[in-house]
Amino acid sequence: QVQLVESGGGLVQAGGSLRLSCAASGSNYRVNDMGWYRQAPGQQRELVARVTRGGTTNYADSVKGRFTISRDSAKNTVDLQMHSLRPEDTAVYYCYSNALRIGYFTPNDYWGQGTQVTVSS
To answer: How confident is the model at residue 43, as a pLDDT?
Structure first.
């Protein structure tokens, strides 16, 4: 199993910044993509940003230019720096990882427990 531990959520005023961090741990796994998703009340979980093992990133249109994802592949950590936060960014943010158990052929998706981000107007 891959364990994902998140930190860094909280309450911030509109226009403020927050940084989320996530560390993946697990023996005998090769971590592929890592990223962040979010889910607001009554909404479906949606992609915020993802980064491949090679460093290719993609972002939701709503966060482009405001959020930056970064990754340390050697440490299996991924951070999300969020600037110019808006009330509509309020959600539970989930760390995500796709990882392959060594000796197996099919990778699996893993999720953190979620961290609340609340942006007040």
So the answer is: 96
Q: How far apart are the first and last CA of the chain?
A: 39
Candidate from 25-34, 35-44, 83-92 with smallest mean pLDDT: 25-34
DSSP string for the chain: --EEEEE--EEEETT--EEEEEEEE-TTEEEEEEEEEEE-TTS--EEEEEE-TT--EEE-GGGTTTEEEEEETTTTEEEEEE-S--GGG-EEEEEEEEEEETT-S--EEEE---EEEEEE-
CA atoms lying within 13 Å on the CB side of residue 100: 10
